[in-house]
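User: Can you write out an input/output pair for a complex, sequences first and structure second?

Assistant: Here is one pair. Inputs:
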Amino acid sequence: MLMKIEGLSVNYGAIRALDDVTVEVRQGEVLSVIGANGAGKSTLLRTITGIVKPVAGTITFNGTNIKGLRPDKIVRLGIMVVPEGRRIFPDLSVKENLELGGHAIDDRSLKKELYTLILATFPRLKERLKQHAGTLSGGEQQMLAMGRALMGNPKLLLLDEPSMGLSPIVTREIFSLIGLINKEKGISMILVEQNAHMALEHSERAYVLENGRITLWGPSAEIKSNPGVVEAYLGV
Amino acid sequence: MKFFWEARKVILPAVLVYLVLKAIFGFHLVSGYIEQITLFSFIVILTSLGLNVIYGYTGQFSLGHAAFYGIGAYISAYLSKSLGVESILGFIPVLFLSGVSAGLVGCLIGVPILKLRDDFLAIATLGFGTLVRVILDNSDRFSEILGGSRGFVGIPRITNLELAFFVTVFLILVTRNIIFSRYGLFWRCVKNDELASQAIGINTSRMKLMAFSYGCFLAGIGGALYAHLYTFLHPSNFDILKSIDFLIIVIVGGMGSIVGTIYAGLIWVGFIEGLRIALPADMLDLRWVFIPLFLIGLMMWRPYGLIRKGG
Amino acid sequence: MEDVNYLFQQCINGLQLGAVYALIALGYTMVYGVLRLINFAHGDIFMLGAFIAYYLISKFNIPIYLVFAITMVCTAAAGYIIEKVAYKPLRNAPRISLLITAVGVSLFLEYFLSLKFLFTANYIGFPRPFEVEVYDLSLFTITNIQLIIFAVTAVSLFFLYLLVYRTKYGKAMRAVSYDQEAAALMGINIDATISLTFIVGAALAGVGGILYSIAYPQINVFMGIMPGIKSFIAAVLGGIGIIHGAVLGGFVIGVSEVFVSGFLSSTFRDGVIFIILFLVLLLKPSGIFGKRIEKV
């Protein structure tokens, strides 16, 4: 077990955004969390990364309790995120963006190694290293956000809506890269998506989040054939 | 008439307060100094109320309120001295004109700067305050009477209990009526959410300008009363420290609270003048060591108001 | 020729003043970048630098390079403490609360230090650390003081450039000023980065304080107010949050001020600077180098 979230509750003012959420992440798997807009998917990731403070529950990562830790401490334990809307630094160059991803890595040779590896995985970034990140296309920005997260040498990678704003072709490209990274590097992932189709296709297990509660979980193949899920998230 | 009928709950106690004060002053139960700072506290309340309209109700932060207070003071003093005004009756048009002038300057300066938000508005109003200070310091170049950095001397003493008290009470009532009118509602909307106000069709830049001009008008009236109470003006009376004074009163009283401003104005003048009496002369400088600390404390614990919990 | 000489001379004098403004403006712009705060107390750090240098020179008579080093350490510490004590508790408060606090800190420093048993409110003559020499370059004259000001400013800017663009801490600073949350998700310690920004800004203001006092050797606890506001205007002029903008803005404001004094009247120089501010805010609030129209 890589991470265990138990009984997690989060409030935004008077509104309960997450209610008694329990999620387990196994070593090396891709786990997807699907749900409608506003169901609490992003809140879940923001709570794991320490941006949002929960009111109840525990989050254990690799045996350490990370609940309430500062974001930068959580990053140092090996959790990196590809945030919703990518949040790259548009006025910094592609190279500088990647370097920032490795901010928490103190071992220089490891940093160099990661850098070469990432450029090999995303050859399109290699052609644009000196460019301002804001000038990249949507798909390239997504790759940059992923590359930047991988520069932190994560044990667990959180992906928040990686398909957002991308065309179907680019979305497919991004998802195949996600699959590749998971298989080749063995990095565990939590994939949060509105595009339930893609998410279930590319994950081993899935949780369904509705109004801040987990209503269904299990192997993605089973979830995919659940009549309720088909009706609510997969369309006809 | 309807105005006075609706305000009867305020007017009756106000008349009572006036009679008590009149009796106290009439029988010389207190010194002339106390009498003077009592009148001064009304002026401070009126001017702070102007800032509360601008900042507390409409959310437009100003660090230059004292400049408008100064504009009102200088214009009124110039008018009454050059026209030879000496009676209350002759002074009332001057008073009104000074308020309108300050409001007009506020309107002119407000058109460009009210587009700015928060801290940029702060620096722009601070800049305007400094500009006014520079102009006042050099005012003897325009007219010898104004006195420049030597100060404006020989202003007739016209402000008395009746004038200071009833003008203040009257303008508090007017302000209260505006605040509860449609416009006051719009001002409060602008403060809460400018975008949402625009979305429901409020002309936000006009509302901000109205509130700002009106607040400056009140400051101008306050300044005119001040000039004819103390009979001497100096540019340093209208610098940033004075603006901070008014700001503290608004925050202590509570943002968007008229009653709070009244209490805070009284307490503040009493406190500052009290320290002048209580502290030995060489310790007087300590006031401005503790006032900023008090202000910082307010920001940490009660940023919207101490007496009334404004929002 | 007389007029041309005078013009050149005013330029040199303006650049001398501008160099000091540039050093102060950097602190404003960097702090604004990471906290979106106009740090009103920054001008007082500049004043503190002047006073620390005054004591080091007049009471201990130590070499000038040590004066610079010790003053920088002290002002940096002051900047660090101010941020930790006054601003950090308000990290999630509305921006106006933070701004009012900054005004409060500024007033406190001025009036506390003006107490009789501290620096007093009087003007004090700043000791000249070396003899003044004037070099005549036919078009204009230049003093060794001016040369030192230009040299020290250049060196400071060079080290600042290295820090901001060549180290990971500088990158972290820039990342925090673009997007604080995303920066935190990269493993950047936000609080430490903000502290570093205050430390660097305050150290530069300390240098500015020494240079200013060498050039205009009269110091007073309120001496930071106007240079502080003018330097902030310089930062706005160059584009708030932009480092090279602050430097350019500083020089523009310095030269303008000296020109107004030299060709018009010194009583109007403060007024003209604020007219520049109004023009910038009205015409291009993002400043000379600003691309994005920020929510101002």
